Each structure stands twice: as structure tokens, then as C-alpha cells.
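Friendly challenge for the regulars: who can give me the C-alpha cells for this chain first? No prize, just bragging rights.
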Amino acid sequence: MAVTARQSPDFRTISDFRKRHLPALSGLFTQVLQLCQKAGLVTLGHVALDGTKIRARASKHKAMSYGRRKTAEPELAAEVARWLAEATASDTREDAAYGVDRRGDELPEWVTHKQRRLEKIRAAKTALEAEARARTEPAPTARPRRGRPAKKPLGTPPDRAQRNFTDPDSRIMKARDGFIQGYNAQAAVDAAHQVIVAQGLTNQASDAHQLEPMLASIKANMGRQARELSADAGYCSEHNLTALARRHIRSYVATGRQQHGAASAGGRRKTLPMIRVHAMKIRLRRAGYRSRYRLRKQVVEPVFGQIKQARGLRQFLLRGQSQVAGEWSLLCSVHNMLKLAGARG
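First reply, four minutes later:
Bragging rights claimed.
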């Protein structure tokens, strides 16, 4: 305000500045977090981890499945060819009626729109096939496949695989208000003052594969690891619990959905003895209402509420996973700045 003499910059200026300096602004998260640590706002005594689904800047109605693309592509190609033939015949008639010196090289909008859509369908179809080939391509030392021959050739995506035209990196995800086209934003929050100590963003709907990257981010950002960590059932797996034990983190991870009014988050999930999931289920049940797992809801969920409700984040403004990840990092930096300002005030 002092530098600009209280002059408000245009919203386009702010938007262009953010786009131009997004990589540098993404690194701002670590710098603000270090200031919070110096101010004594971060103890890493207990960290709660969770993810939330946020809408992408794209409509889920602009997505098309691979099966639909296979039928839509030849239909649109035939329609475009028919319209081009009609346009050529119309040009010939108009040249005969009005002369050839008049300009007529622009195609009508109703033709170019279909052509653009056909190009997008073909590009999205090629991208889905490339992703499927990357997933199913055998390793150089892999043994030949046994059993019945595959119904579809290797590298062919399933008919239900979808890709969005507007933001191809975003995915269809289930949220509280139904299915949305969006991203999965992750945050690890310190219980002392609700400071975000690690953040990330992915286009995978499941949280199971995000625990280890978030643990690595905590260590990279803070220089040390949390003593305790709580997370909901989406992070519960034998692999994740082993990773927590390997890092000597006392964990409280729900093994199932917690029933309303229940004392623990063990859920009705059947577990086998002598595995870590079963041991976690016993740990949560023994503690009951005194379990440290109860801290998860009062630590991480209010942070998502503040970002979504107070800051008005109902939909990302940028497109593409790398751009949206920078936007999420900036929003987490703002949250920590407000915590720092409130503590010093």
C-alpha cells in the first residue's frame, strides 16, 4: 500500500504477476514456514494429515470417455467431410454467380468448431492410449504373459477412461456434493497453532499414495520429522504403516470409517492378527475417547474450512497440474502468513 500510494492494481496486473512469478511464489511456502518455526508456532509434536477435493477450472461435462471417443471420432469426421463437400459445392456456385475475385477462403464458424472438436478428440484419444501403453509396457526382463489372451491389445485404455478437454490433468473425483472435475489437495498441519508444515497436490483421487511424499516434505521443510501423526482411513495400508514405523513416528491412522458417536475409528474392517493394520485397530480401540486420533478433526479439517470458506477457494483459477500445484502452495503460504500475523499481533 505504501509503495503504490494506496492505488489498487488492476486484477489483470495481479493475475499476470502471479502467472509470471508462480515458481518463485511456490518457494514462498518454505520461507514463511521457517518464520513460523522461529516464532515458536511449530513444535511437530503432533501432525494431522488429510486431503480435500477442490474443483478444477474445467467442467466435468467437457470430459469424454475412451469408448465414446472411438464412436464420436468417425461420426465427426464424416460430418466434417460432408460439410466441407457442401462448402466446396457452395463456393463453386457462388463463384459462378458472383465471380472469383471475391474473398471466400474463411470456413464458416459451424465448420471450424467441429474441426477443432475433432482435433481435440483425436489428441485426447492419443494421450489416453499413450498413458495405457506406459502402464502396461512390460519390463525388459519380464516374463511372457501366461494364461488366456487379453480381450484387448496391451496398451489399449478401458472404454471408461476419461480425459477432459479443458484441463486434461484434472480428474473426475467423488466429493461430498457429488462427483466433480478437480484435484486432490494435501496438507499436513501442526497441532500447536494449525500451521501447515507440508502441502502437495495430485490428480489421484486416492490418498493412499500421498503419505510417504508428505512425510518426505515434512522432513525437507522442517529438517526433522514429526513425533506423532494422525490420518483418516484413506491413508491406512500395511505399506504406509510400515513407512511410519520405519521413521519412528507414533501413528494414529483410522482402519475404517468412524461411526457417529463411536469412541474409536477402528470401524468394522476385518483385519488379520500379526499385521500392522490389526495392531493399529487395537491401539485405537484401547484408547477410546482418549485416543490421540481425536486431534485429527480439530487440527486439519478447520484449516480446510478456513481456506475454502474464509478465503473463498471453491475452485482453482489456473489449469494444468503444475500451475494448480503452484496456486495451492501460494494459498497455503497465505494461511501460514495469517497465523504468523495473528500470533505476533
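The domain at 11-59+170-344 is CATH 3.30.420.10 (Nucleotidyltransferase; domain 5). The chain has ten helices and eight strands. Your move, everyone else.
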